[in-house]
Amino acid sequence: MTAAPAPATLDTADWRARRRAHEERVDAWLAPHLARRRLGRKHPVEDFLFTYYAYRPAQLRRWHPGPGMLLRDADPAEFGRDYRADAAGVTLDTDRVRERRADTIAWIRHLLAATAGRPAHLGCFGMHEWAMVYRQTREEVRHGAWPLRLSPERTAAVVEERGVRCSHFDAYRFFTAPARPLNLLTPTRESQHALEQPGCLHANMDLYKWAYKLSPLVPSELVADCFALAREIRALDMRASPYDLAALGYPPVRVETPEGRAEYATAQRGFAERAAVLRSRLLTALA
Known about the structure:
Structural class: mainly alpha
Strand order of the largest sheet: 1-2
Distance between the termini: 18 Å
């Protein structure tokens, strides 16, 4: 047996600079959301990552160095219950966290590895968002404060003409009842590991979820990198949706047209490539 490697040491100025840089980066995302929340206003794009995902703004802002890091002159109380201190400094008690979260870690590792091992499929053209309003009245749609670009009848016709090829359970579960039989697949939570693929916008947004669920076993900079990508993906998701959000600064990607579908697939491919790097970083951290 070999001894565990000694932790890398961060001097006081170094780890405080990293923490400050993380907080400043996150504050730029949090400030507009918190201001809207105080005023009771909602934003269909910018607020999504704070309302759909179960990670509070304060949790996203809190900095964790990741495992194998020794922080000089740190107080473990600043970082949480999973940190321990000795004469040298403060470190994450990795074994304690792994023991408590063993099932979650194994589930996430399996999903990330299975997804990474599949080719990216780029032919969905964002129809999942259309399926979420399929055959609904204007009063029934989720983001009712914002108009649809097409009439309900024309919106339904686009879904029926294009078909739906969604492999992501957490998108599929928001489909309207009439839309579900139109989907090529019937995703379930149980089939998630078998169906999730790396071209899916929602699977790539979810890298943020898997990163924060692994925290503090991954550094907060990686969680923030996943958040940053998810913000961009959400913008494309809603630009390609049936909603007209041009007044908010999101010009539509008209996936009901050949030009719009080509634009969507190009952006989707770029996001898949960037997500592959983050997925690999998460798998490396898990290893």
